[in-house]
Specification:
Layout lengths: L1 H34 L4 H10 L5 E5 L9 E2 L2 E2 H18 L4 E3 L12 H13 L5 E8 L9 E5 L4 H14 L7 E6 L6 H4 L5 E8 L3 H8 L1 H22 L8
Parallel strand pairs: 1-4, 1-5, 5-8, 6-7
Antiparallel strand pairs: 2-3, 6-8
Helix pairs in contact: 3-8, 5-8
This protein binds zinc ion.
The site of zinc ion (ZN) has 5 residues, from loops.
C-alpha cells in the first residue's frame, strides 16, 4: 500500500516537472517569436501560428466552354493567363490562393449551370475571404472597349473590393474605365449565390483592337494582374484580415 502511494507520488512529481518544462518551452517560444526581433525561424513559426487570408480566383469559362471568341482568340485562354498571374502575384506577397481551375481542364461536366454552381460551391466551402472572377467582354455590335467590374454593390465590403480594384486598374495607361456595375441589374450566378465578397472583372473586349492587343501580351497581362492584386491586398488590409506589414 505504502509502496503504491510512493509510486503515485513519484508519478505526480514527474508530471509536475513535465508541465513546468512545457510552460517554460511555450514561454521561450512566445518570447522568441514575439519579443525578439523577427528572424527567419520566427517568421516560419509566425506563418504557422497566424492564419493567412485565402483568396478564391476564378478564371472564367474553360475546357468545353471557350467563352467569347473573336478572330480566333478565346476568352478562356486570356482569363486563365491573367488569373494565374494574379495568383502568382498574391502568393509572392505571401497571400495564399485557391483556383476554381488552373488549366484548360474543368472538373465538372459540360453543363453551363452546373459549371457555375461548381464555381460558387468551391467559393462557399473554401473558408476564403474574397472571390475574384476574371472574364473578357463582348457586345453584339462589336464596338465595346474598356474594363468594368461587376459586384453586389448593396454589400459594403463587396463594393469596397470593387472600388479598390478599379482604383488600381484605372492607373494603367491603355484602358478605358467603364465603371462598377451593380450585379442586381443583371444577376450573375457566380456573384449572386456567392457568400463571400465577390467581384467579376471584365478585363476588356476581344473585339476592341486596343484591348485585345493589350490582353494578349504576357507582360501587359502581368501589369494588369499586379493592379488587381494591389486591389485585393488593400481590401484584405481594410478588412483587417491582413497585417499592414505583409510585403
Ligand atoms: Zn465570360
Amino acid at each position: 500500500m505504502r509502496k503504491k502511494r510512493k509510486r503515485n507520488n513519484r508519478i505526480q512529481h514527474l508530471l509536475k516537472i513535465i508541465c513546468l518544462e512545457l510552460v517554460v518551452i511555450v514561454l521561450l517560444l512566445l518570447c522568441f517569436v514575439y519579443i525578439l526581433p523577427r528572424n527567419p525561424v520566427s517568421e516560419i513559426i509566425l506563418d504557422f501560428i497566424e492564419e493567412k487570408p485565402l483568396v478564391v480566383l476564378d478564371a472564367g469559362h474553360g475546357g468545353y466552354d471557350v467563352g467569347s471568341e473573336f478572330n480566333g482568340v478565346y476568352e478562356k485562354n486570356i482569363t486563365l493567363e491573367i488569373t494565374k498571374k494574379v495568383g502568382e502575384e498574391l502568393e509572392r506577397r505571401d497571400i495564399p490562393v485557391t483556383y476554381t481551375r488552373d488549366s484548360d481542364h474543368v472538373d465538372w461536366p459540360s453543363d453551363e449551370l452546373q459549371d457555375l454552381e461548381e464555381r460558387v460551391h468551391i467559393s462557399n466551402t473554401s473558408g476564403a475571404s474574397l472571390f475574384i472572377s476574371i472574364h473578357t467582354n463582348a457586345t453584339e455590335t462589336k464596338d465595346g472597349q474598356g474594363f468594368e467590374i461587376w459586384a453586389k454593390t448593396s454589400d459594403e465590403q463587396t463594393e469596397k473590393l470593387a472600388e479598390n480594384i478599379e482604383q488600381e486598374v484605372v492607373t494603367l495607361p491603355y484602358i478605358t474605365d467603364r465603371g462598377i456595375k451593380d450585379e442586381q441589374t443583371s444577376p450573375l450566378h457566380v456573384l449572386h449565390y456567392n457568400e463571400l465578397p465577390a467581384v467579376l472583372i471584365e478585363a476588356g473586349f476581344l473585339e476592341s483592337k486596343e484591348d485585345c492587343e493589350y490582353l494578349l501580351v504576357e507582360e501587359k497581362q502581368t501589369e494588369f494582374a499586379k493592379e488587381i492584386a494591389d486591389g485585393i491586398e488593400n481590401t484584405l488590409k481594410d478588412m483587417g484580415v491582413l497585417q499592414d506589414d505583409v510585403k
